[in-house]
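Hi support team,

I'm opening this ticket because the web form for multi-chain structure prediction keeps timing out on my end. I have pasted the exact lines I submitted so you can reproduce it. The total is 219 residues across two entries, so I didn't expect it to be a heavy job. Is there a limit I'm missing, or should I split the entries? Thanks in advance, R.K.
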Amino acid sequence: MDTTAELLPESALREAVDLLVRLVEAAGALIIFVGAVWAFGRFLLTMVRGAGPDRRFNRIRLTLGRFLALGLEFQLAGDVLRTAVAPSFTEIGQLAAIAAIRTALNFFLSREIAAERAEIERERRKETDGSRAPAEPV
Amino acid sequence: MTTVLDLAALATTAFGLVAAAVVLASARRLVPALAVLLDFLTAAGLLRLAGDPDWSTIAAAAAVIAVRKLVTAGLRASQPG
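Hello R.K., no limit was hit. The queue was backed up. Here is the completed structure from your submission:
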């Protein structure tokens, strides 16, 4: 028991996990922020190029949603890492609350992304069918 | 790191406000603009949750996300067709 304590003291483990958690969470936050900046740039570009159909905005939102989902995955990974070292009940409670929020949001985001994607596909198919169909007699 | 995250969250909120105004001006419809604003606000909430949040930050993020879900569901339900 003593040998184990010497080889891997709890404080060293805690420091290592803390560093890893910070790295993973920073990566997640960076992904979310980059997604927001990208989406902001695209919205401005869309406006400069002239007002397009709503579908163009939906596509940008879809990509922003994907960035958010990816960032959330990283942050959830950080939460899982943090469970390796959780000293007090308050910290465990906070961790549970944050993980619950992130998991719920990830679930809803995935559903929204799937719904938006289906809608975009439906509109694209409708447009393709419309352009192929012969002109109706008046 | 917390200060950087706070700044990033603030910038994301500002981006959301401007982007929503852009969408409102381009599409001349409120629903897509609101959806864009809520997306950016969610991103800002997630940025605030990173780092070492206290209970009030967690509660605020949860409230923003719950409101966002409610509004999105309401918008979907009120859309014709």
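A quick check on our side: The interface with chain A takes residues 1, 5, 8, 11-12, 15-16, 18-19, 22-23, 25-27, 29, 32, 35-36, 39-40, 42-44, 46-47, 49-51, 53-55, 58, 61-62, 65, 69, 72 of chain B (CB under 8 Å). Let us know if the file doesn't open in your viewer.
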